[in-house]
Amino acid sequence: MRNLAQDDVKAALEPTRVIAAIEDAFRDRYPATVMPVRTQMKLAEGIFLMMPCYDREGHGLGVKLVMVVDTPANPDQKLHATYLILDSATGHPTLSMPAAYLTEIRTAATSAVATKFMAREDVRVLGIFGTGRQARAHLQVLRHVRNFQHFLVSGSDPGRSKEFAAEMARDLGAPVESVYSRACASESDVLCTCTTSPNPLFDGHLLRAGTHLNLVGSFQPHTREVDDTTIQRSRVVVDTFEGALAEAGDLLIPLNKGHINRDKILADLHQVVSRRKTVRTRSEEITLFKSVGCALEDLAAAELVAAAVR
Q1: Sign of the torsion formed by the C-alpha atoms of 186, 187, 190 and 193
Q2: Averaged pLDDT, 276-305
Q3: pTM (two decimals)
């Protein structure tokens, strides 16, 4: 088995190539993919996740192992991840790579694919809740699918938000403004929630007509980043039905309270990308993509790395 370094992974995962690979995977590979809902194990120091994926036609086989450290002794969530590519005939691991950056870039690329197919063409303002690695990745990646001219960021710590905005302005060569949550929610054309918050970040009444949202932070049934109003106002798409209905508190909480019903989820990303379903039918509609992360995204990104090192 060959062991790669983080620099190998970063060099191979150029954003536009990852976006294309994710779009191709959801359009063409998804029907042939075996992808169980990920295993979640609560440990003393955090949550351990296991995400296997097998492409029955292409014979790609891989698994991601993740530890999310989140304890009083570690107040900031830290993600430790490894991806293994396996020989589908023997199960023998052939390639191992660190997967923290892989997870960041594939998650942002999946949001970019959803934005490409669901957001209005004339969007100009990208708003981000969060100041961590996923926030950074979404700022860097989503600009490849829409012509954003202004960027807003809102974090739980105003001082950190200002530092992050200044840092990202230098990185992007574009205006990045630190704002309060109300402004971020009400002034963004595309809004991404990239936080570890267990509770809604803003009042859903603030969203203006025509907004598109990508929700990526919450992945447990009891946590959510948006309120019932946001879900009720939105036309909702998920990455996979199985994952969303098992893990997405943003949807499960209002479902369990009877504030929405199952029909609120209009499509999965495969149906949208393959154009079997059209979610945005009018410019003033609010659209929402709920991502809990799926193993096909990891396999598609890992295979890009494998091809590059070969």
Answers
A1: negative
A2: 96
A3: 0.94
